[in-house]
Amino acid sequence: MPNNQEKYDSDILEADDIDSDSPGKYKVVMHNDHYTTMEFVVAVLKEIFGHTDTTAEKLMLDIHQKGEAIAGTYWFEIAETKAMQTMTRARNEGYPLKCTLRAES
Question: 23 near 103, Cβ under 8 Å?
Fold first, then answer.
């Protein structure tokens, strides 16, 4: 039987290569900091996570007052992508905004 390195050398995964315990859904958690503007957080929540003005503003206030809020819940790959898009955009704008992923219970 080949070792794991040889097993995954191909770009195409076979049914036997996929772990049946693959990750489920994950929450994208946005964390408060003292530098990122509220306007930027609202914009990201609307543009990346698809929130309305009302829900984006409520979530932004939760982040500000409670220290964190869940921006959305997605399959692992989507959650990871949205978190990275958010943090990349924040860094490009000069903000230290942090997103983490939390497995859904």
Answer: yes
Contacts of 98 (CB under 8 A, 6+ apart): 30, 31, 33, 87
> Which amino acid would we find at residue 81?
T
**71-85 pLDDT tens trace:** 999 999 999 999 999
Give the pTM.
Answer: 0.77
Closest by Cα among 60, 65, 64, 72 to 104? 72
23-103, what's its fold? Ribosomal Protein L30; Chain: A, (3.30.1390)
Structure tokens at 73: 């819940």
Q: Report the C-alpha dihedral over residues 49, 57, 73, 69, rounded to 10 degrees.
A: 130
Side-chain-side CA neighbours of 45 within 13 Å: the count stands at 26
